[in-house]
């Protein structure tokens, strides 16, 4: 859980363009995850990370 909080802080400090590039590089299987408002993109990334942890 602490890892997710650190990731959230890191993502919130990024600009929208940096966030889009981060998502594009780290989640190529979900190209649309980087589109939309910044808060929504951060939520999507955190959900993707939670899914990875639960597998």
Automatic annotation (TrEMBL):
Origin organism is: Methanohalophilus halophilus
Tell me where on the tree of life, at the top rank, the source sits. Archaea
What is the name attached to this protein's record?
Uncharacterized protein
